[in-house]
Amino acid sequence: MTFIQEPYVHRTIALNFEDGVTRFVVCLPGDTIADAAYRHGVNIPLDCRDGACGTCKSICESGTFEMTGYVEEALSTSEAAEGYILTCQTRPLSDCLIRIPSSSVACNAADNTVRKARISRLEMLSASTIGLELEGPEIETLHFLAGQYANLYVPGTNEVRAYSFSSRVSHGKVNFLIRNVPNGKMSAALSGIAKVGDEIRYRAPFGSFYLRKVEHPLLMIAGGTGLAPFLAMLEQMANASASVPIHLLYGVTREDDVVGLDWLDEFKKRLPTFDYTVTVVDTAVDGRHKGVVTDYLKQSHFHDGRADLYLCGPPPMVTAVEQYIRDQGMTPASMHFEKFLPST
Ligand SMILES: Cc1cc2nc3c(=O)[nH]c(=O)nc-3n(C[C@H](O)[C@H](O)[C@H](O)COP(=O)(O)OP(=O)(O)OC[C@H]3O[C@@H](n4cnc5c(N)ncnc54)[C@H](O)[C@@H]3O)c2cc1C
Ligand code: FES
Of the bound ligands, which one is closest to the alpha carbon of residue 253? Predict the structure, then answer.
């Protein structure tokens, strides 16, 4: 008799907590998500562990799983249809992203480890934008959700600044798109003192602004370096050959602020359903649209209310877009936003 050994498959589970912290845990064959969290020392809410009480109810935002052995009082059929799961009864069949309705502190999941990387590329992409690439062994093993951010330490200080990842990790390297803020501490350090080879300390990942399950048309609206998280999201969707319609509205103040069009054109080649529009407030050279992003926002971008809206950039721009779509009666299926608040 021949025994066919099942391949030893483990699944990576991203647990996203309500305070924006994400922990990645590994599910071994046969593990429930609760087992895997427990093995990693993460105390997600649990009581009966038997599918009877409903304490471990969470939301599966992406991935496939099997869930057996629970009662209707713990999880109703309609809740299950909406994506709710019981982590004590759920075994993943793929990598999964689970939203835990509790804070990382309450679950002992906060990871405040300060990690180190080296600058492998540092360049002015335009007068107002710095491109930063980091590398190192700790970057090679870094996990984050496309759209999340890192807290980078200003070199030589204990002050941190938040920057969204503008790429996925590839060949042990990861990128950022950084606005060169006049008189800014990090801006001055990166545009003047820092050089390739220097060490940068960081903590990551953070944030609730990340790409959810891609099943509807997507509308992305970026202001300035708010383009960064969208570059990481587009890379993830290109790697997965996403086929939903994706439109990016990318608005800047001055022509000088426009960066990343080569990358966007590359994504257009890899994602035939992707297109973008660039708007510039003060000038309108070839192919650009003069004005602000709301001047070019159309009902058709919302696909009759089926589009998921992602919005990222300076707080006034995010607020203006929210107000505009409310006033115009434009309704997305879901809306996710990140405001690039200054550290001060
Ligand atoms: C979750 C999150 C993600 C972010 N991701 C990015 C990113 O990917 N790329 C990016 O460029 N920025 C990003 N930001 C904004 C970034 O953290 C700040 O702009 C940064 O703190 C500026 O650092 P600095 O040391 O150069 O300036 P600071 O020394 O912090 O500030 C100097 C002066 O400039 C003002 N200032 C700071 N930032 C801005 C700004 N953006 N616009 C106008 N005035 C400002 C301050 O109020 C202060 O007066 C993000 C912010 C958050 C909260
Ligand atoms: S812990 Fe009671 S249902 Fe999961």
Answer: 1
Residue 67 Cα to ligand 2 middle (Å) = 12
- Of the bound ligands, which one is closest to the alpha carbon of residue 47? 2
Q: Is the CB of 54 under 6 A from ligand 2?
A: yes
Nearest CA to ligand 1 atom 19: 342
Nearest ligand 2 atom to the CA of 87 is: 4
Q: Which fold, 11-100?
A: Ubiquitin-like (UB roll) (3.10.20)
Distances (CA, A) of 85 to 150, 152, 222: 29, 35, 33
Fold designation for 218-339: Rossmann fold (3.40.50)
Q: Which CATH superfamily is domain 115-206 in?
A: Translation factors (2.40.30.10)
Domain ranges of the chain: 11-100, 115-206, 218-339
Q: Give nearest CA residue, ligand 1 atom 5.
A: 163
Relative to beta strand 84-86, strand 57-62 is: antiparallel
Q: Which ligand is nearest to the CA of 149?
A: 1
Q: Tens of pLDDT along the chain (344 residues)?
A: 333 344 457 899 999 999 889 999 999 999 999 999 999 999 999 988 999 999 999 999 999 999 998 999 999 999 999 999 999 999 999 999 999 999 998 998 887 899 999 999 999 999 899 999 999 999 999 989 899 999 999 999 999 999 999 999 999 999 999 999 999 999 999 999 999 999 999 999 888 899 988 999 999 999 999 999 999 999 999 999 999 999 999 999 999 899 999 999 999 999 999 999 999 998 766 667 889 999 999 999 999 999 999 999 999 999 999 999 999 999 999 999 999 988 75
User: Do 11-100 and 115-206 show the same overall fold?
Assistant: no
Q: Pick from 161, 187, 227 the residue to mutate for probing ligand 1's pocket: most ligand atoms within 8 Å of its CB.
A: 161
**Ligand 1 midpoint to CA 152 (Å):** 12
Q: Where are the extended beta strands (E) located within the chain?
A: 11-17, 22-27, 57-62, 65-67, 84-86, 90-92, 96-100, 115-126, 129-135, 149-153, 160-164, 173-179, 199-206, 218-223, 246-252, 274-280, 289-290, 308-313, 334-339
